[in-house]
Amino acid sequence: MTASHKMNFGGLGPSISPGHTSAAQRVYEDLRERIVTLELPPETTLSRSDLARTYGVSQTPIREAMQKLEQDGLIRIYPQSRTEVSRIDVKELREAHFLRVALECEVVRRLAVMEDRSALEQALAISEMQVALRNKPDQFRMFSDLDKAMHRVLFEAVGMRALYELLARKLGHLARCQRLELPRKGKVDTILDQHRAVMDALVARDPEAAVEAMRVHVSGTITRIEKLQHEFPDYFTNQS
């Protein structure tokens, strides 16, 4: 990627309407989604004035949203120069993966022995919705959204919704790697098989099996980082 991309929403960016969530938060959430789904690839230049026109807001919420995205490591702001989507930082990705393994495995360990099965039923229903998208590559975004929803349900079931939100903000680099991997032949089937292994262990009330199944599930992409770096060198920082 020898030249930066210029941001161009082509009129597709939603205008921000009044609501309970602040304009800055809504801009942040939409831009973050566009970045992690690679609609805005690394080194895409982001213009505050263009974004303000796209979203129909002043530059103040744009500035606030950009500050949050910079904290997430998803953009780089060069004062008095430019703002651009960052490359995938492998060091930060590995740290986020370490945190994710610890949290997700503890969540299923606790959930496996809980008497209340309602969250498990929700997770199973979401998993079945993903199965329905198995052979629909044009629905990758929906598939990913359902994946996030399933993990959120598990966290909420053990009273850790705030922790899920914290973790989610740390996973931007990993989410982009997952997006690069999703079109790979067999990847969707692998994810679905791993989900089934986690669900089966939870249904069986087997905490150790649930932990191992979750560990395998959340570690798939990290084991292929070097290969992804080779396939998509312009998406990654030079460090590893």
From TrEMBL:
<keyword id="KW-0238">DNA-binding</keyword>
<dbReference type="InterPro" id="IPR000524">
    <property type="entry name" value="Tscrpt_reg_HTH_GntR"/>
</dbReference>
<keyword id="KW-0805">Transcription regulation</keyword>
<dbReference type="InterPro" id="IPR036388">
    <property type="entry name" value="WH-like_DNA-bd_sf"/>
</dbReference>
<feature type="region of interest" description="Disordered">
    <location>
        <begin position="1"/>
        <end position="23"/>
    </location>
</feature>
<dbReference type="InterPro" id="IPR036390">
    <property type="entry name" value="WH_DNA-bd_sf"/>
</dbReference>
<dbReference type="GO" id="GO:0003700">
    <property type="term" value="F:DNA-binding transcription factor activity"/>
</dbReference>
<dbReference type="InterPro" id="IPR008920">
    <property type="entry name" value="TF_FadR/GntR_C"/>
</dbReference>
<dbReference type="InterPro" id="IPR011711">
    <property type="entry name" value="GntR_C"/>
</dbReference>
<protein>
    <submittedName>
        <fullName>HTH-type transcriptional repressor RspR</fullName>
    </submittedName>
</protein>
<dbReference type="Pfam" id="PF00392">
    <property type="entry name" value="GntR"/>
</dbReference>
<feature type="domain" description="HTH gntR-type">
    <location>
        <begin position="21"/>
        <end position="88"/>
    </location>
</feature>
<dbReference type="Pfam" id="PF07729">
    <property type="entry name" value="FCD"/>
</dbReference>
<dbReference type="GO" id="GO:0003677">
    <property type="term" value="F:DNA binding"/>
</dbReference>
<keyword id="KW-0804">Transcription</keyword>
